[in-house]
């Protein structure tokens, strides 16, 4: 269960690293709708059970934003994939949100939803659930309207480049906060590549800014239609160590163990991690 974004950015030269080049090649077969069906429609997309994976992720995000500590003007979502749920709690705290993905098909999928076009994926179950747990009396339509208004751009990204958004990026930099869900481990052929990708995206964040990172634990592959994508398996402690090496103070790190009834054969994920980290100042 993984997001997307990766290796030789639009117009860039082919990646000389064979591992990353293989990942980039595999992602050309990624099917956004198949990925959404596998992970955001029932059973994984059933939000009626509080111990489900969907409610857990939404709760982690809502509780963190409810502290009031993660706020500012600008936020960048790193490797959005074809999903928007990861920004439903964020949009009340940031006026200028940038969504990003390596794949044009995912950027097109996001555009359908942001323009509220017929045929866009229906996220109303997710927005309704977020409104419920935030308890502010908002309707899901109001929540979605606010998110659409605050996403200012959808840009290509390549987390394996030292400048992930390229030179002369349209996104205001450095950002006050970053969000990234199921991206870094899903586009990195090994743990060293995962670390470098984390270092690269950290350059987009101001000192003292916050990173909210969600990802798969001990997953080695997942399906998105005909595409079978390799994932670097990471453990909770490896995530913590990577954040510390990238000059973060880890504020919160939680783990969700994937129950057997949600192990549906579309991946071999064992669990999910949620990390809240603050970039150190003066490092």
From TrEMBL:
Keyword Transcription regulation: no
Single GO MF annotation: phenylethanolamine N-methyltransferase activity
GO biological process: catecholamine biosynthetic process; methylation
Xref: InterPro entries: NNMT/PNMT/TEMT_CS (IPR025820), NNMT_TEMT_trans (IPR000940), SAM-dep_methyltransferase (IPR053384), SAM-dependent_MTases_sf (IPR029063)
Pathway terms, separated by semicolons: Catecholamine biosynthesis; (R)-adrenaline biosynthesis; (R)-adrenaline from (R)-noradrenaline: step 1/1
Catalytically driven reaction(s): (R)-normetanephrine + S-adenosyl-L-methionine = (R)-metanephrine + S-adenosyl-L-homocysteine + H(+); (R)-noradrenaline + S-adenosyl-L-methionine = (R)-adrenaline + S-adenosyl-L-homocysteine + H(+); phenylethanolamine + S-adenosyl-L-methionine = N-methylphenylethanolamine + S-adenosyl-L-homocysteine + H(+); (R)-octopamine + S-adenosyl-L-methionine = (R)-synephrine + S-adenosyl-L-homocysteine + H(+)
Region (Disordered): 1-21
Ranges of Low complexity composition bias in the record: 9-21
Single GO cellular component term: cytosol
Pfam families the UniProt entry points to: NNMT_PNMT_TEMT
Organism: Balaenoptera acutorostrata (Common minke whale)
Family note: Belongs to the class I-like SAM-binding methyltransferase superfamily. NNMT/PNMT/TEMT family.
NCBIfam families associated with the record: GntF_guanitoxin
List of residues binding S-adenosyl-L-methionine: 35, 40, 79-80, 85, 101, 106, 158-159
Gene3D superfamilies: Vaccinia Virus protein VP39
Gene: PNMT
Alphabetized UniProt keyword annotations: Catecholamine biosynthesis, Methyltransferase, S-adenosyl-L-methionine, Transferase
Name by which UniProt lists this protein: Phenylethanolamine N-methyltransferase
E.C. designation(s): 2.1.1.28
